[in-house]
Design brief:
alpha+beta, Immunoglobulin-like, 3 helices
């Protein structure tokens, strides 16, 4: 926000319920003569709003003898990858009392980034309560993370800080997945169509490849089982990958720190590399690819 204000491009998107006077009235045109200045001051005052909001909540808690309403129990979650979708399914542990429905959140590339609401059902959402959702927008080789919350209709909750009964939602960290879900692809019948993506890999364009996983290299059109050995141009073996899950795709390392790392954990350097693909029956092929760092 500070960089935007310095550049003269700050915009006011705050929509909170201020407990202080409206920010523009606080500073006025003398101290905040431009919309850019007003936007910056509004964001500063949003911190005051949060501070007072926490103080009011703590006061309410004490006044109500710490009898804080509880959100519905978070459901158990199971994520399954398919060639054309990722299936997010959850249990019914949340049902009971004033339970109303579920919300599904998704992050792309990392479990430590922003999660977006991608589906909700029950309550006033217009969707009937269900226990699974198909992510049809998932892209090949991209990594996805999910969590599912349960929410109530508020009818069983005591009036809160604002004097009304509010709907409560289970926490975001109770069933968040930490292992990436990736679209599987149908296995190929032979090695004739094996592809390496991206090729070439250019570190300058890494943010255009796979969101959140800039060093990822993926292999497509693989047979159900094969061994992938990666060599330098001079013939030194740097990585061995056992592809055994029956799908048609795999990647160089599963975790972010394993991408483009050798068997000893070292990040590879620029150069030409050779990937040898060999099936259990002895058939093999190879593909060259380039790394530019």
């Amino acid at each position: 926000m500070g960089r935007a204000w310095k550049a003269g491009t700050a915009t006011d998107t705050w929509t909170g319920n201020y407990k202080t006077p409206p920010p523009y009235d606080v500073f006025g045109d003398d101290l905040a003569p431009t919309d850019n200045d007003k936007a910056k001051d509004s964001w500063v005052l949003s911190g005051i709003d949060s501070l007072f909001g926490n103080a009011y909540a703590a006061t309410w808690n004490v006044q109500n003898n710490y009898q804080v309403p509880l959100a519905p129990r978070a459901p158990s979650v199971e994520v399954s990858s398919r060639p054309d979708k990722i299936i997010v399914a959850w249990g019914d542990e949340s049902v009971g009392g004033d339970f109303a429905g579920y919300r599904v959140y998704r992050a792309i590339g990392s479990p430590d980034t922003t999660f977006d609401l991608v589906f909700e059902c029950g309550g006033a959402t217009g969707n009937p309560v269900v226990n699974s959702w198909d992510d049809l927008s998932a892209q090949p080789a991209q990594e996805y993370y999910y969590y599912v919350t349960a929410f109530d209709d508020g009818s069983g909750n005591a009036p809160g800080v604002h004097g009304v009964s509010e709907s409560l939602e289970s926490g975001a960290y109770l069933n968040r997945t930490t292992r990436a879900a990736i679209l599987s692809t149908p296995a190929a019948e032979n090695l004739s169509g094996v592809r390496i993506v991206p090729n070439p890999y250019n570190v300058g364009a890494r943010n255009l490849n796979y969101v959140g996983v800039p060093n990822k290299i993926a292999f497509f059109n693989l047979p159900p089982e094969c061994t992938i050995k990666i060599y330098t141009e001079s013939g030194d073996l740097v990585k061995t990958i056992e592809h055994t899950d029956g799908s048609g795709s795999d990647s160089w390392g599963f975790l972010a720190e394993e991408h483009q790392a050798t068997d000893t954990g070292q990040l590879i350097v620029s150069g030409i590399y050779i990937a040898l693909f060999k099936t259990p029956d002895g058939k093999s092929t190879f593909e060259k690819f380039i790394i530019v760092r």
